[in-house]
Hints:
Blueprint: H1 7-34, H2 39-48, H3 66-79, H4 85-100, H5 103-115, E1 120-123, E2 139-143, E3 146-157, E4 164-170, E5 180-186, E6 192-197, E7 208-219, E8 223-224, H6 230-266, E9 268-269, E10 272-273, H7 278-306, H8 313-338, H9 349-358, H10 366-383
Parallel strand pairs: 1-4
Antiparallel strand pairs: 2-3, 3-7, 4-5, 5-8, 6-7, 9-10
Amino acid sequence: MNYFFTEEQLMIQELARRIAREKFVPVRAELDEKGEFSWDMVKILRESDLFGVYLPEEYGGLGGGVTELCLAVEELSRACGGLSLSLAATALGTFPILLFGSDEQKKKYLPALASGEKLAAFALTEPEAGSDAGATKTTALRDGDHYVLNGTKCFITNGSVAEVVVVVAMTDKTKGSRGASAFIVEKGTPGFSVGKEEDKMGIRTSSTSELVFEDCRVPMENLLGREGAGFMVAMKTLDQSRPGVAAQALGIAQGALDEAVAYARKREQFGKPVIAFQGLQFMLADMATQVEAARALIYAVCRAIDAGEKRISRESAMCKLFASDTAMKVTTEAVQILGGYGYMKEYPVEKMMRDAKITQIYEGTNQIQRNVIATQVIREAVSKK
């Protein structure tokens, strides 16, 4: 289907597709088995300039937007959802600076992030504050011209490899979510350390770790926006980044569909290829329809964001919800189509099914996405009365 992408967007799509096919596919199984982050793949992404596709040219980017980011993430995830995260999670950590950073902060941090010289992460989740971001316990207390951070963040993608981390911490506990603030914390800052590295079911070649802050002194100039704006920074960031998770889910689903079709064409039972059986054809038809519907929704939302639409919480939640549910369904069906072989690590669909699951969980569980969507639907209905 023609989505009327520009020539530049099609070039980004083709470049990412070629990297996925030629570089990611040969190493994905080994890296998944080892649970190993690959700097070699990061280097390839750096050299391709994909880290900067969504950033302004004045900071060394290619001048694109969320559409360009999602095109790259989709194609990379088609080969490996874990390897795509060095780019996708860096974008998540970069969006707060892009959206709320001062001119000085943007000039200081964005060029290195656009080139891929440095990776980024976004530290919001805590052991007791996942979906309930207002329950954040990490504190940031003012001390002269610094803030002193204390607390622990968990399940942070890119956590152990990021040079730049945006951290949400409480500057005034008495104000609840209105007392949260966001800070840029650099790797190597005294009192900032990486804790436990997680051993995960899927996306095993990405870094997911605990971050620990113990009397970590952060300069005042590293405050993003103003004090008390941390929750808004987090929510606006997620509005921008959730299409990226949706694109990751879409890529995984498309990759699984590709594998299922290729296998069904070759596998013979009862004297003919299994793709000739109507029952299996119906499965493939449903899978393909769901994938294309997810793609249409994602890129419609991307275009709205890039056009400057401000109120996109509902639509952003919708594309993340629909694409991740689609990824889980399509990858599960792909395993079924491959039968016993689908359950074996020799074939990539079992990995794709494991990778798909996290897309229903991180950057807001799909239950939270439904809350966001329902709240907006109800609010709009009330406002029309």
